[in-house]
Amino acid sequence: MTAKHAAAAARATVYGYPRQGQNRELKKAVEGYWKGRVTADALRQTAADLRRTNWRQLTEAGIHEVPTGDFSYYDHVLDTSVMVGAVPGRHRTAVAADALDGLFAMARGTRDVAPLEMTKWFDTNYHYLVPELGPDTDFTADSTKQVAELKEALTLGHTARPVLVGPVTYLLLAKPAPGVAADFRPITLLDRLLPVYARVLADLRAAGAEWVQLDEPALVQDRTPADLNAAARAYRELGAAIDRPKLLVASYFGRLGGALQVLAAAPVEGLALDFTDAGAANLADLAAVGGLPGKRLVAGVVNGRNIWINDYRKSLATLGTLLGLAGRVDVAASCSLLHVPLDASAERDIDPQIRRWLAFARQKTAEITTLARGLAQGTDTIAAELAANRADLASRAASALTHDPSVRARTAAIGDADARRAQPYAQRTAAQRAHLGLPLLPTTTIGSFPQTDELRLARADLRAGRIDTAGYEERIKDEIRRVLSFQEAAGIDVLVHGEPERNDMVQYFAEQLTGYVATRHGWVQSYGTRYVRPPVLAGDVSRPAPMTVRWTSYAQSRTAKPVKGMLTGPVTMLAWSFVRDDQPLGDTARQVALALRDEVNDLEAIGTSVIQVDEPALRETLPLRAADHAEYLAWATESFRLTTSGVRPDTQIHTHMCYAEFGDIVQAIDDLDADVISLEAARSHMQVADELAAHGYPREAGPGVWDIHSPRVPGAEEAAALLRKGLAAIPAERLWVNPDCGLKTRGWPETRASLENLVAAAREVRANLTTDGS
Predict the structure, then answer these.
(1) Of the residues 64, 158, 521, 709, which is catalytic?
(2) 179: left (phi > 0), else alpha (psi -120 to 50), else beta?
(3) pTM score above 0.85
(4) Is 418 left (phi over 0), alpha (psi -120 to 50) or beta?
(5) Which residue of 80, 232, 544, 728 is surrounded by the most CB atoms within 10 Å?
């Protein structure tokens, strides 16, 4: 096919779409089902209505081929485990008894059974449920969900393409099941898994699928020759199957590198590539392998992970180049639109000029269809859109919001000494122990306590004018007193005020910093029914006034025990925001760090002896290629130290991380130079404690003994057993006892019981240490 014909054939598509609905209908229905207020049939109807709405919106926007199978009640990787029959033994009874309840048992656990481990989806803030596999795993095909959703879309008259997690990525994301040797590599199960995928593909073809998309984002990471050989074998075998639809293999989040040659040579009909962040590299690599003659190329030229409007001129130039490299070129976002909010037009509180710079999922579908039309019919057909796009891009570049000379001057003046504590850790820890007087195995929590219905009602009453600011603040004080009273009665050593005034750990600060724009409806799924509203980082950042000092001071005035000051760190402030794309991330991180440094110093000035600066996103934001790690970690760790290095030696600096592969960044954790770090460890069975010990980590650590992302209440002996595992790796004088993460999403009954058990476990283990002289 000539480039002219390829252009004429250009179509618009997407890989996935936000699941929750305009008003988070899915979240409300699922949580209502868990609480017994919504029936299973009503939940399924809500899900069907949302799918129907999504497909209609996409088709009306001009999307020619809608995705199916991307919808999930909880997580698409979990759905894949069900599709291939990889259900852990402990969950099989629940799954066999009721498929829906079994799915949620795998995701959340039950009173008696632990859930699957949860971790980050590549370098995003989405979390997936980690498959548990072993040498005895027996895969079986169950395409019920995938076939049913395809038939739904076809019945409604849509051209549809099922989307599946590819077999190579599925196995590379999996971990050895409990009891399986740690060095077991799930990818060795590929030959056992491929016939199951072939069966699912045949079922989808029989149901009417012309194309099926197989997502292989794991191939944009550093891969061994064995991994690449596995990918080649997988698509050689699937491509050779007779009873199958056409195959579109998709990658995203970066450069394919050596995997591109493997996939280009595979007997599949199409590839989908990311031409945004890794656009130039993927374009050069595609040309180097000779392109995709006679095949379909889906070009991801619209950024599916950030919310800034597309540069039509730049995207059209890329698409024009691609026309000569493939038999057919279609236009898409760089990845699923799951990672962006639904509709920017709903943000009526944002300055209309700024709103024109934003593209959420619905605006991105319009961008995709505009680019496809321009590619297929010529740029004259989109002249008005091109002119408006140029004007909006120019408006953003010239805006006073994006450049603050005073912020830039302060950032430029940073010196090496600004990012270093004045004293080494050995001197600091002696001063801190004398100052704080804590026992062995001190207990604490991560920061937040349950966000109760009363707190949500108080916020709603304030917004609606039913109470004034003074009335709202009295309710906040009541909750702080309640949280402190419980912690003192439970015997916790270092207290928190519970953060009742905070709607979200990033948004709360973003609303008080210059350069940020907060949304009202910009919800994005983090995991399951947990949705967040990432703020938009639009310009230079500074702190006009203290943000937490007042509430921390109030809490400390109510108790003689130390109360932690609680802040969100600069890397997490970036990772859980939609960041600006017009300057390096490191420059933005330093601006945020200086704003937070002012807050840390003000907290110390009012007598706060323990200050926690959370960085759960440090590992999450790690680039997917090892060659890019050093540059990222240099500015990421520097920005943390810049935030925390201005305090006295007897002020104890904590940090917190959760739900990530910490083994990859132990040196970076060390480089933060925090006095204490708390980390997720319950679901991963204290793995991080061993990783810290193997590294020789010299500071204090609190690997979590309570998995707060499950409704289970761990008994005191269960927590004590985990604590003993921690002690096998970390000396008692450096070990803290805490949950995995904050308690915002938990209810008070389970919080009360679990923390009481946690304290009881610490006391029991501490007493045994004292008795045996350890």
Answers:
(1) 709
(2) left
(3) yes
(4) alpha
(5) 80
